[in-house]
Amino acid sequence: MADFYYAEEQTFAAPGSRTQTGTTGPTNKIYGKGLKDVDDGDIEGMLSKLSAAELEDLNNDFDPDNSMLPPSQRCQEQTSKVPTGPYKRERLMQFLEDTAKNEKDWDETVPYQRGTQFVDENAGASKGIGMEMPIEFDLATPDDDELSVEDEEIVIERALKKAPENDLVDLAGILG
């Protein structure tokens, strides 16, 4: 089983493995050597020659959209700031309570009155009064008990022939 390493926009096998991935050419070379010719010791040697700032730049150079990296490594670390002072929970809680008490509440659209319930003025419009029926029904058909299966099929065929196109589209949407 070959070990695989991540490189920007390509995956390559560890030296000595039999699988060949990536393309051959100048993008697969480090200091004029092919990736297969570079040993882990050579990479460690190159990394040891870098300064701390260069290592930090190299560490921050990654693709945040790469799904092969764990989510914790897709973003730059942003917590390098030194603490501004010791953590005092009581003072923090007191500050949050004082800030909340002094902050003005937002305006309510319906003022609060104790013991009353909100009644919507547009309640009639929301219940569908005046709403157009999407499908028109012909209620002047004989009783369902008196119809045989063939009569029901004939009634359905007639209704479908008389139905406007938008009603058929609505019916097709309902039936799937």
Automatic annotation (TrEMBL):
Major localisation: cytoplasm
Residue ranges, annotated region (Disordered): 9-28, 58-87
Annotated localization: Cytoplasm
One GO MF term: tropomyosin binding
Biased composition (Polar residues): 17-27, 69-82
GO BP annotations listed: actin filament organization; myofibril assembly; pointed-end actin filament capping
CC annotations in GO: cytoskeleton; myofibril
Keyword tags: Cytoplasm
Keyword Cytoplasm: yes
PANTHER family: TROPOMODULIN (PTHR10901), TROPOMODULIN, ISOFORM N (PTHR10901:SF6)
Protein name (record): Tropomodulin
Taxonomic source organism: Mesorhabditis spiculigera
Organism lineage: Eukaryota, Metazoa, Ecdysozoa, Nematoda, Chromadorea
